[in-house]
DNA sequence: ACCTGAACACCGTTCAAGT
DNA sequence: ACCTGAACACCGTTCAAGT
C-alpha cells in the first residue's frame, strides 16, 4: 500500500515556473483513480498527496476539505449519465437514465456509497439530470406536489438501488466475515423461517441482507431491470390515479 | 465535545469483582446514544471508551472491530421493525413494514447511512424481516427468479429511500455549504433548465439533489407514502405479467 | 499564487502486563 | 476472563514561511 512519489520533483517551496502544477481537476482524477484501485476505505488526503508527489497542505490549498474533494469525485463519475432530451418517450427516457447511471457506477463502484449516503455528493449531481427527470415526469402528466413526489421516487429508486448494490464490504478481514455470514445464512432454522429456507438456493449471495459479495463480484442485473419496470409501472398507475376522468 | 468519564471507577487492571462491567450490549447502547446525539462523524472507539470510563483496548476486547460495533448498532435499531405475520394482506404487510422501518430510522436518523451503504450492517438486519417479505411476495404469487427480483426491489426501495432521505450533511462548515447550494439552486439558468425553473418553489430543499437539509429537519413524508404506493402498484403489475392466462 | 515543512489534535488496533 | 497502560502507524487540517 505504501508508494513513493512517482517523480522526484523539485521539492522547493514557492510558485512553480510554468503555472500551477496541480488543479482541482487533476486532484479529483487522481483521487478517483486511487479509489477505483483501492476502495474508499484506503482513500486519504495524505495518500492522494503522496500519489501526486506533494505535501498534504498543497492538496488542501486546492480543495479546502476532504468532503469537498469526494463530492468532486462523485460529480466526475456522474457527469455524463443524462440522456439527450426530446428523442424518447418518458418511460424510455427514464429507463435509459437508469441504465446509463448504472453503467457509470459499475465503472467506479467504490464511489457508489457517496451518491446516496452523503448529502454533499448527492447535491453535486448534474443539473441536467434533474431537469431531464422533471421533463419526463411532466410529459407523463405530473405537476405540482405529485411532480415532486414522483421525482423523489425516481431518484430514490435509482440511486438507492445502486448505493445498496455496490455498498462496500468490510475493510479488513473480508473473508472471515464472508465466511461467518455464509454460515449464518445456511444455518437458518427451517421451522422459524420456512419460506426463506425453501428459496435459499435462489437467494444466497444474490439478495440483499443475504449476500457477502457486492455488485462488483455478483451484479444484480435482472433485479435492476425489474426495478426499472416496477418503478415505471408504478408511476403509470400514479398518473392514472390523477386523472380518473380519463 | 470532551467529556470526563462519568464515574471515577477503580482504574486498576484485572478482572472486576462482580463479573464483567462491560458487554457487547452495553457498548452498542452507548454507541447508539452517542451517535444519536453527535452523529456518525463524531463516533470513534476512543470516544465510546471515554464515555464508558474505560481504555480503548477494553472496548476492543468486547467488539473486535469498529465496523462490527457499527453493525451491532444498526441491528439494534432495526430489531423491532418486522410486523407480525398472518394478519394482513401482502400489500398492507409491506406497507406496514415500510412505515415501521421509517419510524425506527427517524428515531435514529444518524444510523441511516449504515443500513444501505455498508454491507456488514445490511447483513445484520433481522432474519424475520427477510422471511416476512418473502412470505408476502409468495402470497402475491411470486416464485423462483421473479421472487428474488421482487424481493430485491422491495428491500432496495425501502432502505434506499431511507438511506437517501437521512443521508448526513457535511461534518463541519454545514451552513457555509448550505448557503452555497441554496445559491446554486436559486441561480439556475431558466433557458437551460426551464422545467426545473418553473417548479423550483415546489422543489427547493424538498427534493433530492436540490436540498441542503436532510430528513431530520425536512422529512419527505408524502414522497415516502407515494414511494410505497408506487412500489406496490409496480409489484402488482409485475405479478399480473406472470400469469397472463388470468 | 502556489507550495514546503512542521506541527496539533486526533484516529483504530495491538500487545504486554496486571489480577 | 477482563482490564490497564503504553505504544505503533496512521489520520485531516492549520499555519508560518518560502518564492
Automatic annotation (TrEMBL), chains A, B:
Superkingdom per UniProt: Bacteria
Biased composition (Basic and acidic residues): 1-10
One Pfam family hit: TetR_N
Keyword flag DNA-binding: yes
Positions of region (Disordered): 1-21
Composition skew (Low complexity), residue ranges: 11-21
Gene Ontology MF term list: DNA-binding transcription factor activity; transcription cis-regulatory region binding
A GO biological process held by the record: negative regulation of DNA-templated transcription
Protein name: AcrR family transcriptional regulator
Organism: Variovorax boronicumulans
Amino acid at each position: 500500500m505504501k508508494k513513493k512519489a512517482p517523480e522526484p520533483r523539485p521539492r522547493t517551496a514557492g510558485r512553480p515556473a510554468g503555472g500551477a502544477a496541480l488543479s482541482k481537476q487533476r486532484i479529483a482524477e487522481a483521487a478517483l483513480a486511487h479509489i477505483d484501485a483501492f476502495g474508499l476505505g484506503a482513500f486519504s488526503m495524505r495518500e492522494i498527496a503522496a500519489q501526486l508527489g506533494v505535501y498534504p497542505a498543497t492538496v488542501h490549498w486546492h480543495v479546502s476539505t476532504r468532503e469537498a474533494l469526494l463530492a468532486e469525485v462523485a460529480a466526475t463519475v456522474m457527469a455524463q449519465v443524462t440522456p439527450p432530451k426530446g428523442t424518447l418517450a418518458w418511460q424510455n427516457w427514464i429507463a435509459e437514465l437508469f441504465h446509463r447511471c448504472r453503467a457509470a457506477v459499475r465503472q467506479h463502484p467504490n464511489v457508489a456509497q457517496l451518491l446516496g449516503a452523503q448529502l454533499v455528493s448527492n447535491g453535486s449531481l448534474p443539473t441536467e439530470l434533474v431537469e431531464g427527470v422533471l421533463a419526463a415526469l411532466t410529459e407523463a402528466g405530473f405537476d405540482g406536489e405529485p411532480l415532486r413526489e414522483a421525482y423523489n421516487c425516481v431518484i430514490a429508486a435509482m440511486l438507492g438501488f445502486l448505493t445498496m448494490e455496490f455498498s462496500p464490504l468490510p475493510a479488513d478481514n473480508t473473508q472471515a466475515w464472508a465466511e461467518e455470514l455464509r454460515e449464518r445464512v445456511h444455518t437458518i432454522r427451517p421451522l422459524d423461517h420456512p419460506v426463506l429456507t425453501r428459496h435459499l438456493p435462489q437467494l444466497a449471495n444474490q439478495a440483499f441482507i443475504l449476500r457477502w459479495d457486492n455488485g462488483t463480484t455478483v451484479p444484480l442485473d435482472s433485479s435492476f431491470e425489474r426495478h426499472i419496470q416496477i418503478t415505471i409501472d408504478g408511476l403509470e398507475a400514479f398518473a392514472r390515479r390523477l386523472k380518473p376522468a380519463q
